[in-house]
Design goal:
The chain is an alpha+beta fold. It contains three helices and five strands, in the order H-E-E-E-H-H-E-E. Bound molecules: adenosine monophosphate. The site of adenosine monophosphate has 15 residues, from helix 1.
Length: 119
């Protein structure tokens, strides 16, 4: 159980080492691990260790410092595992594919195609 009394999310269980994952970086409040089904040469999931915020909008409103820490970890992961260029993708809302309501970001790096998202 978490401090809220809810069942822990899959990402809380990864942070607690209850579910195996290839963890590449962590801070006191953030954990980053290789995605089990990578969509890019480098695909790392970066997430708060606690599932208090269900999506990036809640996180930005509730704890902007934690969102900034998450972005800093994403930057460091992209620099460590690739050339430092990266995409940072959030998928808030079920319509965008979210099924576990625990905010996480996807770092996509390495061999990114140029396109209209550049910049
Ligand atoms: P999404 O729900 O689209 O934000 O993505 C969650 C991501 O977590 C998916 O891309 C999954 O492949 C990934 N994932 C789920 N379980 C694990 C795991 N045990 N280790 C690594 N990645 C995982």
């Amino acid at each position: 159980m978490t401090e809220s009394g809810a069942e822990p999310t899959i990402f809380e269980r990864i942070a607690a080492r209850e579910i195996p994952a290839d963890i590449v970086a962590e801070t006191d409040r953030i954990v980053a691990f290789h995605d089990i089904a990578p969509k890019a040469p480098v695909h790392v999931v970066v997430t708060p260790k606690q599932g208090r915020y269900r999506d990036v909008v809640e996180l930005a409103n509730g704890d902007p410092a934690l969102l900034a820490e998450l972005v800093a970890v994403a930057r460091d992961v992209a620099a460590d595992l690739s050339d430092g260029d990266f995409r940072l993708v959030f998928n808030p809302g079920g319509g965008a594919g979210q099924t576990v309501f625990h905010v996480r970001a996807h770092v996509l790096a390495g061999g990114l195609e140029e396109g209209s998202l550049a910049g």
